[in-house]
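Chapter review: from sequence to fold.
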Amino acid sequence: MNALPALLLPPLLTLGVLIFASRQMPDPAPLPTRSGELACAQPPVFQVGHAAEGSVLDLRRDRYDFWDLGWLTADVCGPGILTLTATGTVAAGEAPRLEVAVDSRPISRSLVNGTQTLRVRIPQAGRITLAYLNPYDDVEAREAMLENVRFRSQKCRTFHLHVPVGSRWDDATASTKLLTGEAMVITPCSSGSLLLKVFGVAAKGDYPILRFEQGGRELRMVRTGTKQQALELNVADGPVNIVLTNPYMQRVAHRDLSVSGVAFTPDATTAP
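The token string follows.
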């Protein structure tokens, strides 16, 4: 068994970072191809790749836990046999799909339900890719939506912004959503009016409740609903905190894939 390298990978993120809504991710763009000469080694040295920003692939000793679209790659200088142990958890009626490719050309596809040992014939020298192609998450979450966020005063109309981990700010629509209890902070350029529209997605029978506060003083408490509410708050010069007071998030289903014991046995005629 070949030990995989102890790469420095991000720790498992909280559910709020991983999940913005129930989702079925599409297949990634074409698998990575190599450029230049092969960087061969025996045993092969596997590297980690991700198909999207925010993807997570967790390393625990010689085991790789896939949490999103991603892959492992290594160069080999000849044909041989690739062996590995894969463990998968079915979600939404489908097992995790593991694809093995050489120089982006697929040579093996496996649906992994439970634990199984795979042996794949590698026909030639090239870059081996082990790719997880069909991640799935189903999460019930209480979501507070903030849209068309603006600031207005006689002096200026700008503000600085901090959004919590797990939230994303959309400049085009001046919008975000809050999933956790961490405060979103808006710091206006002066005193004036903070304007925005809010609505919510219920979970566990309740809608999100937002608290607006500044300088330790509560400005407004708002219970959201499916109908959009337009808000205008008079604010001073200083940070304004917007807090989701009743966050709730529960994972309903997750399609997991783990890969361990990855080993490559070169043919006798090509072994170094």
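Two observations follow directly from the output. The chain has a mean pLDDT of 84. Residues 143-247 form a domain with the Jelly Rolls fold (CATH 2.60.120).
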